[in-house]
């Protein structure tokens, strides 16, 4: 039904897909290791990440949180994706109850993930949040080497870069990660899971309940 209308595209890192509060006209489905980011913009020009989106999901469904005021979506890890006119997706969902149920389940899981991120920022220490962030990227890219700078990590979490630098050094000393220029190499996923808060597991469980089969399997290597 939709396959003939899907357009393959290559997304570049940092490309803005939807500006603050802009209604989506194109749905975007990241493929393979491509990762999108829905962020909430601050008055100072910075932005805090609300949710990352990999091949388990998409942006552009009716009522997507990316279309809310002060929210924007951009490409965090570049790569292949599929585009589809939102009107075609809405029309298809109106005559295919199974598709609509799947999309609604994903949307509910996405909202739950965003609310979990709010609670995480308020309740958990920065080290646990950093570990959670690294795990979520590893889930979606499937690669132990993450294209992520300390500056981007600090901005996405809404913390000082010096705080991130200190914590990353501690994680490296414990041989959980290795930091390279513009890259973070994960050495010990199990160790990062132990150092993370329980939000990472909670999000996976919520996806399993509301949108079964969408989230990537747990990566152990």
Automatic annotation (TrEMBL):
Any one Gene Ontology molecular-function term assigned to this protein's record: DNA binding
Which GO BP terms, alphabetically?
Answer: regulation of DNA-templated transcription
- Provide the HTH crp-type domain boundaries: 124-190
User: What is the official name of this protein in its record?
Assistant: Crp/Fnr family transcriptional regulator
Question: What domain of life?
Answer: Bacteria
A Pfam family annotated for this chain is HTH_Crp_2
Q: List the taxonomic lineage.
A: Bacteria, Pseudomonadati, Pseudomonadota, Alphaproteobacteria, Acetobacterales
Origin species, per record, is Siccirubricoccus deserti
Q: What InterPro entries does its record include?
A: HTH_CRP, WH-like_DNA-bd_sf, WH_DNA-bd_sf
